[in-house]
Prior knowledge:
mainly alpha; globular
Amino acid sequence: MNAQQLNVSVIDPIGPAIERVKTILFRPFDLRKWFVIGFCAWLAYLGKGGGGGGPNFRGGGKPDEAFHTAKEFVLDNLHWIIPVAVVAVFVGIILWLVITWLSSRGRFMFLHCVAQDKAEVKVPWTKFRQHANSLFLFRIVLGLIGFAAMGVPLLIAGLLIAITIAGNGPHVVGVLGFLVIGLAVAAILIAFILVHKFTMDFVVPIMFLRMTSCTGGWREFLGLLSANKGRFTLYILFQIVIGITVGMIGAAIACLFSCLLVCFTCGIACLLMLPPLVLGYGYIITVLLLPLSVFTRAYSLLYFRQFGPQFDVFIPETVTT
């Protein structure tokens, strides 16, 4: 079918996605099924949330005095700052690799559960092992490219900050420089967010259907994207609306659960100090928010199948004898 003849809507998949949630999670209601699919969803989105504010330095001194004080502190404590920094970076890299690998496996597991209405862990874990590893390698390379791309403007920003501190304060060139760097960083972030979004929403389903690699999935998707730029642009804009709505609902449920948890525990600080309990808390939250996760995953799949039956992951698997 010609690209212009396709009837693709961002509204039409909403109703079927809600029905998919009802079919998978409520017809009938099966608590075991919730926990199994919830585990797959938890793996799929592992490491996606979180984020807090950094340290807030306050003081009445001048910026150059604060800079020199920090410089002297670092120079006087290099004997322990460098080893701690090296260990921290090493541990951070290991955690990043492990989380990315697990979430890559989880993406296929959760997709399998939503597409086939099956609460299974072992089957998709084994069946899509090679494809998940391909996705993992793609994400690692993408992350390294993103780190390098962000490094250049951030390095320039650091030099501008040093020049500003060493001088008499901000000047026109410095302000313009920060503005250009800010725009460059924003453009890079948007580009990598879009690549990640398209990979998870459309390339992974292509890999799921074709049993191909991530690069093979991207080659097929790029042809579809180039012929439907307007449709996928509208999809991204509508995803922002869905993301805000789902995020608000999820935040309200998570906040309510957290308040109830505090009431029945000795203190939230004890919970946050124990990594196993933190992981368990995240898993329970994922199970509670499972209808939202199933909806968002089903919505993107239902949108995608509007481009033709070759992109329909809901077709039942054929059983060979």
